[in-house]
Amino acid sequence: MPTFRYKGYRQDGREVSGQIAADNQRDALARLKGEGIRASEIGAESGAAPSTGRWMLRRGIKPGDLALMTRRLATLIGAAMPVYEAITTLMNQEREGELRSVLSRVRDRLAEGSGLATALSQEGSLFGESYISMVAAGEASGALDLVLERLACFMEEQEAIRSRVTTALAYPLLMIVVGCGVMLFLLGFVIPKITVVFADNRATLPLITLVLIKVSTLVRKGWWLMLLLAAGGIILYRRLSHKESFILRRDRLLLRLPGLGPLLQKLVLSRFARVLGLLLGSGVPVIRAMEITSQAVVSRPYRLSLAEARSDLIEGGRLSTTLSRSPLFPPLMVQMIGIGEQSGTLEEMLEKAGSAYEVEFNSATTRFMSLLEPLLVLGMGLAVGFVVVAVLLPIFELNQLVK
Q: What is the pLDDT of residues 329-355, one digit of tens each?
């Protein structure tokens, strides 16, 4: 008899997980239901373990498409349409592609008697634990349409932030690429032809010109070495990226960088507050919500602080008390969380804090980019000015000798 591994919730909201022997998945779900367990994830023992901490792994499906599908599903279920018919309607509206295939498989599992959360969890790494847990909580509370609506809003807001950051970085990155390309062209092709004149005259060259000639020679004759070093650096970085200690040091360094550090902190705080508030408001138990949130926050220093906070919650502590001991969480956020805990409106205070830090992040991004662009122009101007001075200075000296 095959063995199935499951995760789910009891009627009192406690999270459970384990294994159960059954003839098939439908039988396993029925046995779990008889024991008072509502499964959020279930799969054969030999199946791939579901991913954690990500809202979605692309696999050909864009985040915007998934958000739109979620909103459409919320609208159909809110109109009192059964889940099976709603999924079927969405599948028929989709063009041939990965999303249509996913909806087809989900519909087949629903026809076999699975719940929506269980059917979605069988898609491997497509839907993360955040998505699955919220859907399971919505099914258990009978407010699936409201949970899906909130989830769609969150995904759309996250996609808007991602698009805003990408757009803001496009111009500076283009300037860096073009500037580096121009400098390499000058050093590799233009400067060598000009410096031949200086070498023929055997005159004493200024230091700045000697430096330019050395750099030009390095670019022409050592380009293969620079490419080799760049490739080696990329390979070394990728290998080190699999080590938790390296990632922790890297993230701590990023948070300390002037300008960029406060920007990253606001982004992480906004995501932490929005994700945790969304999970709590959807009915996910607080311990489980903290576990999912710590995985959704990519910054390792924040993950460690949230893991410590989760341990304190399990022992009966308060979230605000634990976070106040960490310098990563500003006093304003800690105070808002404390007020929410005292008044019983924690999810509302978290959503307000997340919105506030999101606004601060957008404003800080605008200021940072408005400062970065003139700095890049200044840097390019200084580089070009260095080349021009290095070339013209010996020419002026030759003119003086001729006179």
A: 999 889 999 998 888 888 889 888 888
List of residues 6+ apart from 369 with CB closer than 8 A: 168, 169, 171, 172
How far apart, in Å, are the Cα atoms of 151 and each of 144, 206, 333, 342? 10, 65, 23, 26
Q: Taking a C-beta distance cutoff of 8 angstroms, is the pair 117, 132 a contact?
A: yes
Rounded CA-CA distance 127/370 in Å is: 37
Cβ pair 186, 387 in contact under 8 A: yes
What is the residue whose two structure tokens read 């000296």?
A: 397
Q: How far apart are CA 125 and CA 32, in angstroms?
A: 24
State whether residue 96 is helix, strand or coil.
coil
Largest CA distance in the chain: 104
Query: Partners of 10 in the beta sheet?
Result: 37
Cα 124 to Cα 59: distance, rounded to the nearest angstrom: 11
| Residue 38 token pair | 């509502």
Q: Which helix (H) or strand (E) holds 39?
A: strand 37-44
Residue 42's DSSP bridge partners are 6
Closest listed residue to residue 99, CA positions, set 129, 127, 60: 60
Contact 209, 386 (CB under 8 A): no
Is residue 9 a contact partner of residue 37, using CB atoms and an 8 Å limit? yes
Structure tokens of 22?
Answer: 């059954």
Q: How far apart are CA 52 and CA 145, in angstroms?
A: 24
Contact (Cβ atoms closer than 8 angstroms) between residue 389 and residue 188: no
**DSSP class of 53:** S
pLDDT digits (tens, 9 = 90+) for 370-386: 888 888 888 888 888 88
Q: What percent of the chain has pLDDT over 70?
A: 87
Which H helix or E strand runs over 3? strand 3-10
CA distance 169 to 277: 29
Catalogue all structural domains in the chain, each as residue range(s) with its CATH number: 1-49 (3.10.20), 260-361 (1.20.81.30)
> Cα 315 to chain center, whole Å?
30
Question: Which secondary structure element, helix H or strand E, spans residue 122, and what is its range?
Answer: none
